[in-house]
Write a structure and sequence with these properties.
Blueprint (H helix, E strand, L loop, with lengths): L11 E3 L6 E10 L5 E9 L7 E8 L8 H13 L3 E6 L16 H15 L4 E10 L1 H10 L6 E7 L12 E2 L2 E2 L1 H14 L6 H4 L3 H9 L4 H6 L6 H4 L14 E6 L5 H10 L3 E6 L17 H14 L11 E6 L13 E6 L7 E9 L2 E3 L7 E4 L26 H4 L3 E4 L7 E5 L2 E8 L5 E9 L5 E10 L18 E6 L3 E5 L4 E7 L15 E4 L5 E7 L15 E3 L5 E4 L2 E9 L4 E15 L4 E14 L2 E17 L2 E13 L3 E12 L2 E13 L4
Parallel strand pairs: 1-27, 4-5, 4-6, 6-7, 7-10, 10-11, 11-12
Antiparallel strand pairs: 2-3, 3-5, 8-9, 12-13, 14-15, 14-26, 16-25, 17-24, 18-23, 18-26, 19-22, 19-25, 19-26, 20-21, 20-24, 28-30, 29-30, 30-31, 31-32, 32-33, 33-34, 34-35
Length: 681
């Protein structure tokens, strides 16, 4: 995960603002239990005489080194336009006191409420607060908003979710998201073990560091909750949307892993505005692919309306703005995705209707013509060309040509379309089926097939078939018994050109996205009325479509940084034809940077390996390795971690190892081992 600021000819750097800015480093915010949170504050110099509203970004990613580059282009921009912009390290991260035992804990939320109280006591603050955040900061913005502190007037949430079980890096469709469950746990295992800066906090840094090093790996807790129980309901604001009573601006991109939440938030929150562009998991003023937009200007319009009471027109803005992408042949990264902005006044939209296609002898047809049975066997290596679950815009993130995958699944294809059409929303696949095992899953891919044969992945979805009736109370399947399932695929905003076809691919495996069922599975699908594809086809609205325009991106001046080691990424798939072992190795040297303003340098290297053997689901293995460094000339720490996950028919096996070095000498080493029963996984 690289927090970079790329250079762009289209982005304008602003160096002079309406109000002169001052930056306050190493501000301590006291909590009621004696803990101190570390903050950096950018605010207008005259704020004491002319108090301003406050923007809060609240993250565990180390404001003084790891996010310092990205923070520098955004927070001063807000301050220069009349806000106090505050970046706070969550308890147990960066220079804040304590340690962080898990994500989105009640303690994290409680601390945020105390930060609001502290803000209300400052002479430079009006007391009105807005929160902004991407990913973790977007998640906790929603979660804190549900706590209804009177100071919090609005939030901007990017790349976030309202459902921690069904729509995050842990479980998808009731399946373990094998590509990301261990990877994200290993990431936070390493990230959360980084120490405070002794130059800032003094001699106590090392005692606190040892406390952080001893923290139990998060994956042990996550794997102990394989169903949607109270653990996941905590922080899932879809449990009661009415808890959020303030305006919400929700933003994502088609390459992001969290696009679906925008649809749900726009539908269910009393006042929400939604925006989806072509982007990966990033802020839209710096995201790839193009077009980027003047997102910070949009934020100011939002803040000015809800924090200053200025009529900026956001109340009259369309409820939902989305970028409908034009067709592109498959590439593992794109610099640009041509398309058009469209608007809808609500979601669900009256402009979107379903079009149905039924299965018939390898084809998808708009009329029901078959009652055949289709056998779908397990091919364990199906899924290696899916790309990553949540692209950050790095080379190699996106799915390869799906012809690599189609031979490992059962595929149904439409005839070439005579006219182009747009899709917006969630494709669905309904199926009547039987399975030959008690535990099974199904994965569905929707692809655009070009006249020249290339197959581009548009959307996918999967379902743990033991969760047909409930994610809370899964049940064993009865082999041979008929069931009905509906699989929701990820949302799309896509034009299908005339001359192209659509493909639907079906498989009971999708490694490494889904941890495989313990035994090879054959599904038997019954073509007929109950088995069909439902596509969300949008009727064009010529009077408004294409009429939305955004300003070009603006940011503040990025801080100076020196590149000590450049980034490098490789992503390779190998197949041993003798042992029939398949392996994906994803290596990312995220580089090393020096920040001249504080002398800190930081770097990271990550390698993730996913292995399986044809015909043998119990050979599945995920391994995630990290090396992190942080320090300055006379002080440096290094962390080396290794996380592994395997399984047998009944049990998951987790092993996490951490080794820490201080100024080149090993000072800590520990291994955590955990066995966890499989619960219909």
């Amino acid at each position: 995960m690289v927090f970079n600021v790329s250079d762009s000819n289209d982005r304008k750097t602003i160096t002079e603002f309406p109000r002169e800015i001052e930056k306050k480093d190493h501000v301590w915010i006291p909590m009621s239990d004696g803990t101190k949170l570390a903050a950096t504050i950018w605010l207008p110099k005259d704020a004491t005489e002319n108090p301003v509203p406050v923007i809060l970004e609240y993250l565990p990613y180390r404001k003084d080194d790891f996010t310092a580059i990205r923070d520098s282009i955004r927070h001063p921009y807000f301050a220069g336009h009349g806000y106090a912009s505050i970046r706070v390290d969550i308890r147990g991260t960066g220079n804040s006191d304590g340690y962080l035992p898990d994500e989105y804990l009640k303690q994290e939320h409680d601390d945020a409420l105390e930060v609001f109280d502290w803000i209300g006591e400052q002479s430079w603050a009006t007391g009105d607060v807005g929160m902004i955040g991407k990913s973790w900061g977007g998640f906790n913005g929603l979660q804190v908003a549900a706590r209804q502190h009177p100071a919090l007037k609005t939030i901007i949430t990017l790349c976030s979710t309202d459902d921690r079980y069904a729509d995050d890096v842990h479980y998808r469709g009731g399946n373990i998201l094998a590509s990301d469950m261990l990877w994200w746990a290993s990431t936070m295992f390493a990230y959360s073990a980084r120490p405070q800066d002794p130059e800032v906090v003094g001699e106590g840094w090392k005692e606190n560091w040892l406390e952080r090093l001893k923290t139990t790996p998060y994956v042990n807790e996550w794997m102990s909750h394989q169903t949607r129980d109270a653990y996941w309901k905590h922080g899932s604001i879809n449990e009661d949307y009415s808890d959020i009573k303030i305006p919400v601006f929700t933003v994502s991109g088609w390459q992001d892993g969290y696009t679906d939440a925008v649809f749900r938030l726009v539908e269910n929150l009393p006042y929400a505005k939604g925006l989806i562009g072509p982007w990966a998991h990033e802020y839209p003023e710096v995201a790839t692919p193009d077009p980027t937009i003047g997102f910070l200007q949009e934020c100011l319009r939002w803040w000015d309306q809800w924090l200053k009471g200025i009529d900026t027109g956001v109340k009259e803005d369309p409820k939902f703005i989305t970028w409908i992408q034009e067709n592109e042949l498959p590439e593992v990264n794109y610099d640009e995705r041509p398309g058009k902005w469209v608007v809808d006044s609500s979601w669900p939209s009256k402009n979107v209707n379903e079009k149905h296609f039924w299965l018939n002898d390898g084809k998808l047809e708009s009329e029901l013509n078959s009652n055949d049975k289709v056998f779908v066997p397990s091919v364990q290596e199906h899924g290696y060309y899916a790309g990553v679950f949540c692209p950050f815009g790095e080379p190699g993130d996106l799915p390869s040509d799906q012809r690599f995958e189609n031979g490992k699944s059962v595929v149904f294809t439409t005839d070439p379309f005579k006219e182009s059409f747009d899709m917006l929303g969630h494709p669905m696949f309904d199926m009547e089926f039987t399975a030959d095992q008690e535990s099974a899953l199904v994965a569905i891919r929707l692809c655009d097939k070009a006249p020249t044969g290339e197959s581009t992945l548009l959307s996918w979805g999967m379902l743990n078939l033991n969760h047909l009736n409930s994610h809370e109370h899964p049940e064993a399947l009865v082999p041979g018994k008929k069931y009905q399932a509906s699989i929701k695929l990820d949302s799309v905003g896509q034009t299908i050109p005339a001359g192209h076809s659509l493909e639907v691919a079906i498989s009971p495996t999708y490694w490494p996205q889904a941890w495989p069922s313990p035994k090879p599975v054959t599904l038997e699908i019954y073509a007929g009325e109950s088995t069909k594809v439902r596509l969300p086809v949008r009727t064009p609205q010529p009077e408004v479509d294409g009429a939305v325009h955004f300003d070009s991106p603006e940011t503040a001046q990025v801080i100076d940084r020196e590149i000590l080691r450049t980034e490098n990424r490789t992503r390779q798939i190998s197949h041993n034809t003798i042992t029939n072992v398949w392996q994906l190795e994803d290596f990312s040297d995220e580089g090393e940077r020096l920040l001249p303003h504080n002398g800190l340098k930081h770097g990271s290297i990550n390698k993730n390996t996913y292995t399986i053997q044809s015909g043998n689901p119990l050979a599945a293995k995920a391994q995630c390795e990290w090396e992190l460094t942080v320090g300055r000339d006379d002080w440096e720490v290094k962390l080396i971690t290794n996380s592994e996950m395997t399984s047998d028919n009944d049990t998951f096996y987790l092993t996490n190892t951490m080794t820490a070095f201080h100024n080149g000498e090993e000072c800590f080493q520990n291994t955590w081992k955990k066995e966890i029963p499989r619960v219909y996984q």
